[in-house]
Amino acid sequence: MVRLTVDLIAKYSNRSKNNRHQSLPQYLKKVTHLNFSNRNIEEIDDLSMCRNLSVLYLYDNQIKHLSKLACASNLTHLYMQNNNITCLEDLSALTKLTKLYLGGNSITVLAGLEDLTELKELHVEGQRLPQGERLLFDPRTIYSLAVRTPHFMANLYAGQLTLQ
Predict the structure, then answer these.
(1) What is the pTM of this model?
(2) What's the farthest any 2 CA atoms get from each other in the chain?
(3) Which has the closest alpha carbon to 157: 135, 137, 133?
(4) Pfam families per the record (predicted)?
């Protein structure tokens, strides 16, 4: 199983020759963007050392759970397309999130986004659901996104949509 850990980040970091004198904790504290797309990652480890992480690319992996992302509270952009996510969990701490890409997963209920007051874009198109299943929307989530976020844009095309 491949896990996104600080060791994996260190292994693939593109620290320039000028910054090689930085320790790993110093580097992790300063990193703002990470791209670990298409690396067969199944699990996300604690990223709390990446205090300034604002953009995270994890599309085209095998990730099932988002629970460890709560510690990445400075995220503004999260790209999680084409993984194996079935439900949204523990995203309430990501209050700075403005763009959330979740297309091509297996999410059945869109819920738990009420605290994401800065969210401007939500992409949930192309969910891989069993035949006859529909993408359900929790009314509290829809209400909070529509009312508190006047310029909210959603890409919801999933064939069939249902308000719960």
Answers:
(1) 0.90
(2) 56
(3) 135
(4) LRR_4
